[in-house]
Amino acid sequence: MSTKTATKSKHPKGLYYLFFSEMWERFGFYLMLAIFFLYMIDAQNGGLGISKESASDIFGTFIAFVYLTPFLGGLLADRVLGYRLSISIGGILMAIGYIGLALPGDLAMVAALGLIIIGNGFFKPNISTLLGGLYSTPEYQDQKDTGYNIFYMGINLGAFIAPLVASYLRNNYGWGYAFAAAGVGMFLGVIIFWLGNKHYKDADVRKPAAANDMSLTRIFSVVILPAVVAGVLGWVLIPGDIFGSNSTDAFIFGAIPIMVFYGSLWARASSEDKRPIAALLSIFAVVIVF
User: Fold this and answer.
1) Cβ atoms < 10 Å from Cβ of 231
2) Please, are residues 130 and 18 in contact by the beta-carbon 8 Å criterion?
3) Of 256, 266, 112, 235, nearest to 179 (Cα)?
4) Domain harbouring 181, CATH code
5) What is the pLDDT tens value at each position of the chain, 290 positions in all?
6) Within this chain, do residues 53 and 138 fall inside the same structural domain, yes or no?
7) Which residues span the domain enclosing 260?
8) 226 and 129 share one domain
């Protein structure tokens, strides 16, 4: 009986490496997020000194892209790169991006934000998926929910510490030191991830497209390309900033082809599948509003 209890409480060793990798990733992200808007509007202590309206537009656009790129990063990891390589690429790009924010000038900021956006797309969805792979064997599958709860504690811990470190470094040393700390934290997360590589290499299983799956080419041509085109048209052609700014107009119009695509999935589904798809779409809508 005691042996059975011990087995049930066991977790794969890879969980703890992923825990600390994700903790440092969230530390870097929320450290940067805590001070980024203040950095943009600061005109007296080494910040960019831009208007609050422009800073809000940049901040919102950055967050929107952060939520968009995991779709692409997860897709490429599933079909082409694998999870471990994608996580490594994403972590390194984000670390360089955070450190790039410590450099002066608008060009450095734009380049750094681009690296963070792309890196997040590769890192964020795939480390959670890799964790799920660790619990796919009969030995661990009963502990999957508990494992994700432990993993989520790492997210909360990193997010809790980040603003405290950000404010201390900003107030005592300056913006550059605070952003650089985010980069150092991200590099630590990547190193910890590499140290645990042997514990989750067997869970890194690519999923080639099944016979009824859309190819990457079709996904890009049917979903991504129309969204990009609609977004550009929303930016250029819509007069008067209907939704408050050009970038907001672009994202609203860019979302239309994606909504049409998901609606078409529901319309073409069998009567058996319509109900669960409708439930998922309802959850999507609530999360988006949230």
Assistant:
1) 20
2) yes
3) 112
4) 1.20.1250.20
5) 444 444 455 888 999 999 999 999 999 999 999 999 999 999 888 888 898 888 988 898 899 889 889 988 998 998 889 999 999 999 999 999 999 998 887 888 999 999 999 999 999 999 999 998 888 888 888 888 888 999 999 999 999 999 999 999 999 999 999 999 999 999 999 999 999 999 998 888 877 666 677 778 888 888 888 888 888 888 777 765 666 677 777 888 888 888 888 888 888 888 888 899 999 999 988 987 87
6) yes
7) 216-289
8) no
